[in-house]
Fold this sequence. Notes:
Nucleoside Triphosphate Pyrophosphohydrolase, three-stranded antiparallel beta sheet, globular, 4 helices, five-stranded mixed beta sheet
Amino acid sequence: MTEPRPDSSPLRDEPVALEVISSTRRYDGRVWDVFQDEVAYGQGTITRDYVRHTGAVAVLVMDEHERVLVIKQYRHPVRLREWEIPAGLLDIAGEDPLLCAQRELAEEVDLRADEWHVLADYATSPGGSDELIRVYLARSLHPTDAPHPREAEESDMELRWVTLDEALTAVTSGAVGNSIFTIAMLSAEFARSRNWATVRPADAPWPQLQWRDDR
């Protein structure tokens, strides 16, 4: 086994620019595509298939009582009506992630927020997808002027206000398994335990997204 390297520097992901010998679109999908890349690595090459994804944003909505807004929505690939938080794709070219989150909040749950922070950034499945997600914390809430029309899976969404502790219990008991929900709730609990001092400004840099898009 390789011995761990002693290092006291902070943990930080490292961008790597490898030579991509070839990149072939294997599947052209409605929302995302599948690519096969041949990459120079070490003394040889590796070939990897992966989903190329637009990326997404999600919003942990919290009211003045520290309740969070959760939604139940049907997800066909897993055949579940999952408990989730509002989220949406970064599928408008050039749209700022914060503006996308604000738009999704209004479109999915008819709310706007005066106070925004970054709660978490993560890669959903870096071994097989380049999808990146930014989770925002939205507080100081107000209803939108008019409800947004919804269709398909969004037409019968269920909304519920729950305490953060209720949401955490659902995660840790295995009752809820959505990855965005899980990471958002655990990140919120960490931030709450430190009096919310760990949240970042709403316009905080998102270097992983920039590294990905610069490839």
